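We modelled the chain as a single entity of 93 amino acids. Its sequence is:
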Amino acid sequence: MTDKNATGKRPDFIAYNVNQDRQGKGHFSRIGAAWSHKDGQGMDIQLDATPVSGRLTLRELRTEKIQPTHKLNSSKGEGYLKQNRESSDEHTR
């Protein structure tokens, strides 16, 4: 997912596709980002997916760090990573 444009500027807006479940609750899926033009008269939008519904929701980027839409599988946990680091250290001795 794009977190910066070609000039390295963070996006001003995040683009989402919103699907509603049977209870009417909206579920946001991040599909892109938008950068405002310097003159304030428009924006560039970069999409990684196009919503089938044709509806796109733009929300202002919050100041906290951008979070990926998919979390890495951490089923092996920190112990697995530590074990692999120790194992690779043994091979370099």
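As a brief sanity check on the tokenised model: Helices lie at 77-91. The beta strands are 13-20, 26-36, 43-47, 57-60.
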